[in-house]
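Hey all, sorry for the wall of text incoming. These are the two entities for the joint prediction.
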Amino acid sequence: MLMPSAATKQQMPVQGSVKLKRGGKVQKDYTAYIMIAPFIIAFLAFGFYPIVNTLYLSLTNATLMSRNYNMQGLKNFELLLQDKFFFQSIVNTWKIWILNFIPQIGIAMLLAVWMTNVRLKIRAIGFWRAVFYLPNLLMPATVAVLFSSLFDFYGVANQFLVGSLHVFSEAMDFKINETFMQGLVAYIQWWMWFGNTLIILIAGMSSISESLYEAAMVDGANTFTMFRKITIPVLRPVLVYTLVTSLVGGMQMFDIPYLITDQRGSPNGSLMTMFVLMYMKFKSSKGHIGLASATGIMTFIITAVVALIVFFLLRDKDELALQKDRKRYKKQQKIKARGGAAK
Amino acid sequence: MSNHVKGNTNEDLRNRVSLAASRTAVYIVLIFIALICLVPIWLMLVNATKTTSDIQQGISLIPGGNFFNNWKILDDKGMDIPRGILNSFIVSGFTTVLSVYFSMMTAYAIQVYEFKLKEFLKGFVYFIVLMPTAVSIVGFYQYVAKLGLLNSYIPLILPAIAAAGSVFFAKQYLESAIIMDLIYTARIDGCSEFGIFHRIMMPLAKPGMFTLAIFAFIASWNDYFRPTLLITKQEMYTLPLLVGSLRGDTYRQELGAIYFGYAISVLPVIIGYVLMARQIVNGLSLGSVKE
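and here's what came out:
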């Protein structure tokens, strides 16, 4: 009788705690802390401490070889801000990320709308999803060197364009064309990630109730209006999630721009992303880890600031207002309940 | 409505035709994009089975018979592929076990118990999922070097205990998988809290753990950034590092062997995916939405 039913499962931990309060709550608390301890300790050791250490190193003139190094304030950051390569790396990173993200979200959205459309009734959705997602599972290092091989001077792309299609009369040297290589890296990022985004969008869309669309159709809404007024608002949290995770990953882009050419961001530094630059400073003959740390910290600041702006701009104002209302309502209910009991 | 009742067959027919036309168009686009996804992969697999001169002669999508010979060429040049596979399996295997076990445990604690840090931890896990942790790689490197753990798998494996993404997924999963009645009953029967987790929750959560394991394994298997900083001894190279070195001068003339190296690094994942695509795709949908 006292056992909560399956329907109230969501609230059960709370009910559990009420029970725990009577018998040995201290002991249960203690269990929870033991259970989360490994996570906390490992996070402090491998997540938190490295960040602190990086922050500290960024304020020093440490190199890989030197045993002793000194604090030198913000000098590394000053150096970075005067460094035209640093600015180039920021521009490169953003350019490649945006060139990949817009088609990624666009095509994933289009495919998701088609694949969930009730009238179209596309068959074998599981199969299509599985195929589109496959590139995401491949090793980025392999994908980078694979595309590098395909676009070699004597590679498959030239064989196809010159030998089979006769688009060009002679082989193209893709690897020296800055715009082409940036586009290629963006294309590879798109190739690897649109399937992932597609699956997330489909999952989000299939949670939208059929009846919403039916009601809209009765009211004479067309497909585009329904998409704008129903699909997009319901998908908003999913879209924000996709945008932010893609941004965070994109700012850290490394494997593909690093491995696709000469591991220095060639041609002409056009593939030098912020992480490639950080790694180059780290691996340089002097091994400026102080400067490399500062590059990492700057990447973090840029990412965090932009992510926060995105969260702020795209926050759901209606939802926030609704939550406030709900809280207020709950409080009132509580006060009422107490008052009722007292009487 | 009245139009429909009258049976405006002309319009009906036109609708049906236009639906069929758009359906065809959609299928054409789907097939086109599927080809975009598959052709580069297929080319890589096919080229791995061909000789260098075959590859240079032109594009063909039909496999050749030079697979094992390509392996031998890499071996002769000093690239120990089986060793790389073994190294990768060691790192990814341990990483997977640690990350699944501890993520489940952390998520279980957050989900089932009431404790002071609970709300904080929930938000905190979400926060570190979104945090660009790799920016601290230099600090990580310097401190690993101080501890004398360069060229060791320990700094690649142990951070898996605090895999925030896995905890996040595990929490999502446990929300619907935990049956509190079972926990109460077990407590009444005198089962210890850890006993409940190990003997009741873990067997119940097997499907979720399986999905977690797949994603943890693939992430570790594909990781290039951390190993390339921490591992410099050739005999300790994992597969991504071997693949990265295939672009070097040593192998320049050996196209078939290069493609063989590429193919072998992704084949285990592709085979696993062909066998378990449904679970993997469903797992992905489960983990990312809701929040």
